[in-house]
Amino acid sequence: MSTPSHPLPGAVGLSHLRAYGWEAADGVCGGSPHLHLVCTEAYVVTGGHGSVQTLSPDGFRDIPLRAGSLAWFTPGTVHRMVQGSDLRITVLMQNSGLPEAGDAVFTFPPEVLADPERYAAAATLPPGTGADTETAARRRRDLAVEGYLALREAMTAGDGGPYRAFQQAAARLVRARVPAWRELWRAGALAAAEHTGAQLDALESGEPSYLAEATAYQSEPSRLNGFGMCGRRDEYALPGTTLPHDGKPTA
To answer: The pTM is what?
Structure first.
């Protein structure tokens, strides 16, 4: 089979996660709460059990996860992966490339979100998978949980103001990146949809010459057991999918 030169179907992102087992301040083991600003994320549970906690205009939810479960959440939904026992998930991300470009924003406390340099320092991990990176990933998780617990407490008390303020702060934090994101979207998800339109046109005209380009691809993970937002992460360096790891936050 050929070396991949095209993104995955629909220009989705793909990775595998094993939820963190670190205990947080509230006694819950799991990942770093965050939201995505333009990407819907899906969890396909492949083993173990746990849950995903979410904050949205629906309120606080704790969605059970077990092998075979499928859960997904739209942009603006704060989510926190919770470890039960050996929770393993395949993650599908809309708009591949955008989550790795900063579409994901941690639920850090408001004073951190208000300062782009402070946010970047708290969000960025050292490269590699050693002890220093693990310590930084756990510190990042704990800071995100700190902000998340305040949002959840307010929401369960009937006050959605802090949650909405967090969404606005996250949007301000990434606003300058939108032109670059638009180019990634045009080259990825939009191009994939337009490619399908061209194929439909060819079929309708009776000249499906594109079928002569049929082929198959295969790939292996390019990085194993890295530190992601929610857990230890295996990723694929496919065109338009997962960007090469550079120590910056990934889903």
So the answer is: 0.91
Report the half-sphere exposure of 2 (CA within 13 A, side-chain side). 7
Using H for helix, E for strand and C for coil, what is the string for the chain? CECCCCCCHHHCEEEEEEECCCECCCCCEECCCEEECCCCEEEEEEEEEEEEEEEECCEEEEEEEECCCEEEECCCCEEEEEEEEEEEEEEEECCCCCHHHCCEEECCCHHHHCCHHHHHHHHCCCCCCCHHHHHHHHHHHHHHHHHHHHHHHHHHCCCCHHHHHHHHHHHHHHHHHHHHHHHHHHHHHHHHHHHHHHHHHHHHHCCCHHHHHCCCECCCCCEEEEECCCEEEEECCCCCCCCCCCCCCCC
In tens, the pLDDT along 40-84 reads: 999 999 999 999 999 999 999 999 999 999 999 999 999 999 999
Residues 127-177: tens digit of each pLDDT: 888 899 999 999 999 999 999 999 999 999 999 999 999 999 999 999 999
Span 163-214, pLDDT tens digits: 999 999 999 999 999 999 999 999 889 999 999 999 999 999 999 999 999 9
C-alpha distances out from residue 100 to 77, 119, 212, Å: 17, 16, 34
Rounded CA gap, 47 and 91, in Å?
13
- Alpha carbons 223 and 234: distance in angstroms, whole number: 6
